[in-house]
Structures are given as C-alpha cells and as structure tokens.
What does this fold into?
Amino acid sequence: MTISGAEILIRCLQEEKVEHIFGYPGGSVLHIYDELFKQDNIRHILVRHEQAAVHAADAYSRSSNRIGVALVTSGPGVTNAVTGIATAYSDSVPLVILCGQVPTSSIGQDAFQECDTVGITRPCVKHNFLVKDVSLLAQTIKKAFHIATTGRPGPVVVDLPKDITAAKCAFHYPAAVAMRSYNPVTKGHLGQIKKALHLLLSAKRPILYIGGGVILSDAAPLLTDFARRLNFPVTNTLMALGGFPGTDRQNLGMPGMHGSYEANMALHHADVVLTVGARFDDRVIGNVEHFAREPRRVIHLDIDPSSISKRVKADVPIVGHIRDVLEEMLKLLEDGFETSADLADWWARIEKWREKNGLAYRQSEHIMPQFVVQSLYEVTKGEAFITSDVGQHQMFAAQFYKFDQPRRWINSGGLGTMGVGLPYAMGTSFANPGAPVACITGEGSIQMCIQELSTCKQFELPIKIINLNNGMLGMVRQWQEMFYSKRYSQSYVTSLPDFVRLAEAYGHVGMKIEKPEDVKGALTKAFTDYKDRLVFMDFIIDPAANVFPMVAAGKGLTEMVLANDL
Amino acid sequence: MRRIISILLENEAGALSRVAGLFSARGYNIETLTVAPTEDESLSRMTIVTRGSDEVLEQITKQLNKLVDVVKVVDLSEFAHVERELMLIKVRAIGKDREEMKRMSDIFRGRVLDVTDSSFVIELTGTSAKLDSFIAALDAGLILETARTGVSGIGRGDRILKI
It folds into this structure.
C-alpha cells in the first residue's frame, strides 16, 4: 500500500512520539496541514509568526527531555524561522524544523515563495536535508531526529518540496540509523578519566566550572552528587543554572561578565579547573590573555572535541558523554580511588570573597528590578519555570532567581536573541502543563514577539509576564553610561504602549505596578487569583538600575566593578 | 604554516558547500581546493591547502570532523606524502619564441597539448612550487592564460586514507 509523502511525514512524527508541533501554514505545506487535520495524535500549535514557532519548539526541548518540532512554509516562512534556528544552534538545543519548499521542478526558477533553505540555514544548523525522493523521506526524518538528539545536540532542518509531500510511496519507518560519517563518542577514555581524578584529588584549590552541557545531557543529579562528595566549589554558567542547586552552599553563582565576585575570583585563582560541558566563552572568562596569567591545570570534559582547547588549552581533555564520564568518575571514587586534599584553606578564601556581597544593590524609592526577581522567587517558592529575554532583566533573573533544578531556566545564552521570552514561555507551558511559568522580560524585548499574546489566548496559557519596564534598552544604556560618556544613542524607548490595555486587548489580565510595597501583593495575586490566566505585569522600575558585578569587555575576570565600589 | 588536508566525504549535493562554508564562516583560509569522486562513487575525496598555526589546524580538523557529511579527515602534512598539481598554460608562440617555449616546456618536463600558428597549450605537473617557477621563468608578456587544478596529495607507503 502506498501513502502520500505528507502522510508518511505524519506517521514518522508519530513514530517519534511527537505530541506537539509549533507552526504556521502556507502554500508549500498544505499537503502536510491536510494530513495534520485528519489525525488526533499530534497537536498543532498555531503561532503568529514563524520565529515564535521555532523559539517555542526550542523551549519545549529545553524545558523537558523531549524534542521540539516546528513546521513552516517555504520562502518567508523559512527566513522568519532562521532567528529561531540560529538561537537554538548557539545553545545546542535539539530541534527538528520541517520546511515546505516549492516543487522540485520549480527549484532554482525563482518561484513564488522560493528560497534556498538548505543554503540559508546551513551555517546555523547541525545538519540539513533536502528531500528529493519520497522513498527517502522516512529515513531522512529518522536521521533528522537521530542527529538532532545525539552527540552535541542541535537543530536539524528538513526541506520538503511540495511534490514530495504529494508523491506516493510505501511506508516503512527504520528502527535504527547507521551513518558511516556520524558516530558521536559517548564513553570517555578511562585513562584520561583516571588522570583527571588524580589531578582533581591532589588539587589544593579546585573548582567545578559547569556549562549548558550538564543540562543538555541530563547530568545534573550526577554532577551534584560528584561535587558534594568532593566538597568542591561549583560555578555554573548562564546556561547551566539549575545544573547544580542554586541554593547549595557550594554554589558560587555564575562566572563571567555579570558573575558573582566569589565565582570569578575562585575560577581565576583555582589551581585545577574541571570544566564540564562549558566552553570558556568571552562572556565567561573575559580577556583570554588575562585569564592565562594565572597558572592552572584544566580538565575539559565535553562531547564535542572542537569545544576543547578552542579558547583555553586543556591539560586533560576528555571527550565523552557527560553522564557516562561522571558515572565512571563516581564509580572510581566509590572504589576508594583516593581522598581529596584538605580544602579548608580554599573554602576560607572563598568565604572571604563571598563576604564582599557583590550582588548587593542600592535601594531607591522606585521599584528595583532585583527586588522584583527576589519577590518572584519567594512567591513561586523557587519552583517556577523562568524564561527570559535578553538584556539587564535577563542578568537580574539569572543572578537572583535560585534554580535548584535543571531545565527550569530557559534563555538565549549564546545568540542573545531579544524576543525569545514569550515564545519560550509558550513552549515551556506546552511541555510542562500545569506548571507555573513566568517570563521575565523588558519593554524592549517583549515587543519583539508581542504578537504571541494572541497565541497565548488561543491556547489559554497561564503565563505570567514580568515586564521590568525602565523605558530604556537597559543593557545598551548601561554600556553607554559606562563606556560612551552617557551619550544615550537610541537607547530610549519612547511611545511605549499602555501594556495593561494591550494585554486586555488580547484578552488577558494586565497590571501596572509602580510602588515597591505593591510588588509582592501583585505577584501573589497573579499566581493565585489569576492562576489560570495570562497576567501581564508591567513593573515600572528604577531607570538607573544597572547590573553588577561587571567585567567590562576586554577586561580580566578579577577586574570586576561592584555596585558598592561606585 | 602550510598544511594539506585530505577529506573523505559523502558524495552528495551540498557536501562541498558545507566544507567551503565552514572555512569562510570561521575565517580559515583556503589556498587551493580540489574534489572528485573516489573509486567508491559514494565518496568524494577533497584536498585543501590552508595555512595556520597548530591551534588553528587543530580546530579546522575538529570542525571538519563535526560535519555530518565528512567521513574522515587527515592532515597529510603530518607525515611523508606526495603532492602534485596540474597546470594547463597557454602561451604566445610566434617566431623565435616557438623554439624557446618548446625548450622551456622540456626543461620542466611539460607536454605540449595543443599547437596553433601563434600559441601552445602546455601541460605541466608537479608541486605547486614547480608550477610557480615555470611561470616565473617565462616572459610574463607571453602568458595568455593559466588553469591550475590546485593540489592533490596522498600519503606515502602504508599511510592509507580509506573507510
């Protein structure tokens, strides 16, 4: 029996246990939408812009261990999706993006809504496919899911010409894929693992520097066990919040440009650094030469060999799946490998740094953004899923919401895409029905995907939007204040909408909060009285609030500016 | 430092652009690039000549290996190998230059492939340096056109790049 390519596609998705697809229809995907109409297993979430479809699918992956799927039409559908794809690629998020394409006979003819999808997306996908023969469709979909979810994960695009989704073929879904050119490593090299442990256990000033890989590989419980057993300090990057409990004494907070004082000092002065699923990027270690001035031994564990010794040379590289390698390390410790050095002096130094209280902020008669995040933390008891956009609010959220569990903090760390917050909250809501989801954003970012308030209404998503409104592009303004002699070029947002009425126009609840004493009450109300509604909370905050500590671009990790230095 | 990288990759549409795109996106330079199917038609072999420090080369190799279409990558310059480039060069050959051109071609072990009353096409194979010196040895005004293939290379003896 033969069935159409569109039906084959849907059957493949069902085989992959896909429950949600985020998408937007158009000419070249009509056959697929017709098949979606005829079945009930997969729920299609109609967004209002393709960018949001990909962001939502991305958050669906990040906030669960399932994989997000997006479906867009050819041409502008694809180009709109590109920001979403690049965002997921930067943070190594597994994702499958299905794109319509003009019929194979029209490819290259400058047809209506034609674009070179494979060419446009090539630099921002893990891999992409153009399906030119319906008999290859099922195995291509199988490969797409396999590639997206294994090794270092990432988005995979499948381009589907319209005639392929119409053509008929027998359906057979392969049980497994074998690709001679793609065989990611999993097990780490035992010799290297032992070498790493020797080094770690002889360290006088060790630190665990963990990144997004810990979350992506679902290794947080193992990592936590490992760190606690050795009593090592841990610093987790923006991408790793929740990879080690945020409330744990051993957690020093984030490293980097807006990292904590103790995390940066400890990372800089450690004699042995165990890097797990992180990549020493510019926002984390600042100036590479400055970082290199202090001698230290680096153990680098990552599934992607190209992340190792890219910016900082590793003394002990370990290529492997983080979970497998940590399991191996824990087993060796269990077998009585060695005992670690006495870390009392090191901890005493760290506690001294911690006493500096680098996250302290001045009070004012206005609402301070940090206070809003702290209040949100209290009201949600630290158990909410928090999505954020990009800017000052993102840093305040990362600094002041303590994540004790992985996959609760959803943000665009690598690409830094403004506008992700609301669609991220949507994807998170679908992946975690019933869980509290808050989107911490600003009046700049939220307007980049504001149309999704309509999607939220359609699907009755009870998202709480925490809009930290300072009437300025805060992070841009902060840099202009500090490095451009206060020439605030284009960083004011004038003619802001009345967000309360805007939310109401979309059918949601709007609140405007202007006084510090109203913050907690409003938040409590949003999470109780309006538990099942989307609440847009417009917090009018102190426009002068800045993010500290700060390591200026090009400076070293120890050259931080603290709020109380000013 | 000059390096020669040999790559076995799936002989599929778009595979070349993935490799070329990687080099441009990451700012690596390509001096020459050649590619053709191997004896196994499902595979292509690509040879890239590039320049970079050890660190850059390590990154290039790792990044190439990450490409899903790439099956194997070898830095030929790490061990004994032979490399050759082929050049077709069209030169003006009139009057006394005809004899001179023939002699130069013989000295460089070239072959004259095409003769007209005013030009020769000479085929020359060798290392890139040899081809460069042939060009340098000619009177620049007599060179009408050159077509070079870029470097192709292979390991000596037991060094075999195969899947």
